[in-house]
Specification:
With 196 residues, the chain is of the alpha+beta class. The chain has two domains: 139 residues, Transcriptional Co-activator pc4, Chain A (Roll), CATH 2.30.31.10; 42 residues. It has five helices and eight strands; from the N terminus they run E-E-E-E-H-E-E-E-E-H-H-H-H. Helix 1 packs across helix 2. The chain is extended. The N and C termini lie far apart (99 Å).
């Protein structure tokens, strides 16, 4: 049986997903629900590949790490499979550990742009309608404290944006009247209406 391949690209990073549709759920032949392999290619870096059980933890690691960066917290993530920590503001050290005991860990150094491109590829995978997998959401493994902060930020943003847009629209609309209003014309009209 021929396996399907889907690729997600962002600048210098590409993510390839290889697998089959789940015919027992009457899925389209182009779908991928049973992932057999994935490959992450980062320009000028060794190829990263693995099975589905490795993909979820790696995606979670990148999401949690980037969330810590955004929140200006200490950006360190450590697990059995992957460690990520900041070397400085622009360089991030990634250590990928193999589940096989005789394989040495793969050590990568990536900049902010490569980190952003990698997360963008993961986002494309999560949003793709052609790949059906259990949501490899970073909500699944995020600590509750971090998750609570994220939810609050989204709720606050959704709460504050509509009134902010309404006020901006009102100011813009009002300023057009001020621009076209000429008080000299009103004085002339009053002089004509009120005889001296």
């Amino acid at each position: 049986m021929i396996q399907n391949k889907l690729s997600f690209h962002q600048s210098s990073v590409s993510l390839e997903i290889i697998g089959l549709p789940d015919y027992s759920n009457n899925e389209n032949k182009d779908q991928i629900s049973i992932i057999s392999q994935w490959k992450l290619t980062i320009i000028d870096k060794p190829l990263i590949e693995g099975k589905i059980e490795h993909l979820g933890p790696i995606m979670d690691a990148f999401y949690i790490y980037s969330n810590l960066l955004i929140k200006n917290e200490i950006p360190i993530y450590e697990s059995k499979l992957i460690d990520i920590k900041a070397d400085n503001l622009h360089i991030h050290n990634i250590v990928l550990k193999s589940s096989k005991s005789n394989v040495k860990p793969l050590i990568l150094k990536i900049g902010n742009s490569l980190l952003s491109d990698t997360i963008n590829c993961f986002d494309q995978l999560n949003e793709s309608s052609k790949v059906r997998i259990k949501k490899i959401g970073f909500y699944k493994n995020i600590p509750k404290k971090v998750r609570f902060g994220l939810n609050n930020k989204v709720k606050f943003f959704n709460f504050i944006m509509p009134p902010f847009i309404a006020i901006c629209s009102l100011i813009l609309f009002s300023s057009t009247f001020i621009y076209f209003y000429n008080p000299v014309d009103d004085n002339k009209k009053n002089e004509l209406l009120i005889p001296k």
